């Protein structure tokens, strides 16, 4: 893949020698993506080129995050609010611009939708041959930016629906999560990690700052079948629907095991821990957010895709998150996701049969 090109997808797949099987040794995310591409004979390389836009943006965002206390990037730019009515931080705005910049030069990308933009936007004046839409939360966990706590980026790639015209960008993104062709997140934590799936397992890459490349560090990630943590904003518990309150009481009772609570307030970081350690992450409906707070298209869907690919489960409290058919770009959803044992227990407790 050629990240040095200023625009346009390679017309044929780049001639890079990739081993048939991914054995031990240093493997960059670019090599991994190319290897995944080999599963699709005749693939043009456009998809790999698209994903390289995300990895480039991730490096640029993490560079800013890493120097956040040293440059004028903390805080909010004079009272800006996004479409959700939430105060935008400078890093929200910067991360959004970087992702748009890195993706709009990929000709295979026709539509971008972001938490920070009111509407799905058509990019590069519309390229008739564009095949993909990308939706993202450029900076997840805004309340943690100024206090040096982990934040993240989430993304989801969707194929252009048959017959979707350039005049109707919304149609490109209003698809159920089952239609995602790739999804992932970047967590800017004690190291920067990119975790992604193209529907063939979940793979994690750690940025090696010395060489500036994401290196495969967590191949074939599997969520443990049971964990020792549950993660929820318990301060809001009195506003949760009563069955959720009773379920949290069940977790505290020891009936399922001995749990500790962990809650960072950055969904990406809370989910990353859940992916690695197992357990549960919940953002139920609350008194102020009756449909939950998290956004379906660019928060819950990528997380649900990864959870299922890693052997976990993701529900909106009643059904698979991935089966929800959205009617709004910024639609919200409750989210309950985690290890199979806890999730089966949750489903049984709630009387769900899926
Ligand atoms: P964002 O910063 O993109 O608006 O997302 C914040 C979200 C999510 O990251 C997190 O899980 C949740 O808000 C935390 O909300 P509470 O403070 O209500 O727990
Ligand atoms: Mn978010
Ligand atoms: Mn955000």
Bound molecules: 2,5-anhydro-1,6-di-O-phosphono-D-glucitol, manganese (II) ion
For the largest beta sheet, what order do the strands appear in spatially?
Answer: 2-1-3-4-5-6-7-8
Helical content class: 25-40%
Oligomer: single chain
Proportion of residues in extended strands: 15-25%
Alpha carbon gyration radius: 20 Å
Superfamily (CATH H level) name of the largest domain: Fructose-1,6-Bisphosphatase, subunit A, domain 1
Number of DSSP-assigned strands: 13
Query: What is the CATH class of the largest domain?
Result: Alpha Beta
Our measurement of the CA-to-CA distance between the termini, rounded to an integer number of angstroms, reads 41 Å
Global outline: globular
Largest sheet: 8 strands, mixed
SSE string, helix = H, strand = E? Answer: HHHEEEEHEEEEEHEHEHEEH
Nearest-integer average pLDDT: 91
Structural class: alpha+beta
CATH fold naming of the largest domain: Fructose-1,6-Bisphosphatase, Chain A, domain 1
Low-confidence stretches: 1-10
Number of domains: 2
The number of helices is 8
CATH architecture field of the largest domain? 2-Layer Sandwich
């Amino acid at each position: 893949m050629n990240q040095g090109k200023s625009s346009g997808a390679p017309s044929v797949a780049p001639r890079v020698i990739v081993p048939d099987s991914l054995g031990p040794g240093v493997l960059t995310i670019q090599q991994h993506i190319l290897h995944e591409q080999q599963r699709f004979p005749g693939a043009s390389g456009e998809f790999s080129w698209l994903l390289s836009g995300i990895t480039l943006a991730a490096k640029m965002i993490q560079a800013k995050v890493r120097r956040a206390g040293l440059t004028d990037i903390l805080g909010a730019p004079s009272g800006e609010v996004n479409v959700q009515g939430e105060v935008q931080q400078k890093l929200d705005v910067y991360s959004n611009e970087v992702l748009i910049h890195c993706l709009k030069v990929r000709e295979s990308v026709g539509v971008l939708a972001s938490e920070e933009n009111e509407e799905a936007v058509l990019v590069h004046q519309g390229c008739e041959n564009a095949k993909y839409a990308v939706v993202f939360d450029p900076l997840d966990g805004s309340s943690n930016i100024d206090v040096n706590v982990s934040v993240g980026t989430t993304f989801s790639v969707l194929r252009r629906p048959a017959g979707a015209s350039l005049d109707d960008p919304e149609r490109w993104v209003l698809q159920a999560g089952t239609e995602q062709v790739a999804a992932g997140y970047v967590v800017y934590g004690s190291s920067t990690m990119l975790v992604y799936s193209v529907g063939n397992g979940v793979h994690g890459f750690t940025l090696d700052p010395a060489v500036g490349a994401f290196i495969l560090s967590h191949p074939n990630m599997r969520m443990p079948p049971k964990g020792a943590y549950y993660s929820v904003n318990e301060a809001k518990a009195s506003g949760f629907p009563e069955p959720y309150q009773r379920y949290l009481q069940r977790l505290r009772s020891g009936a399922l095991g001995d749990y500790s609570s962990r809650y960072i307030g950055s969904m990406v970081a809370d989910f990353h821990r859940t992916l690695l350690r197992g357990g549960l992450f919940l953002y139920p409906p609350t008194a102020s957010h009756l449909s939950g707070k998290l956004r379906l298209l660019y928060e819950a869907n990528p997380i649900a895709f990864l959870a299922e690919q890693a052997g976990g489960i993701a529900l909106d409290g009643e059904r698979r998150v991935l089966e929800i058919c959205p009617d709004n770009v910024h639609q919200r959803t409750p989210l309950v996701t985690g290890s199979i044992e806890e999730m089966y227990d949750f489903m049984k407790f709630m009387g769900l049969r899926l």
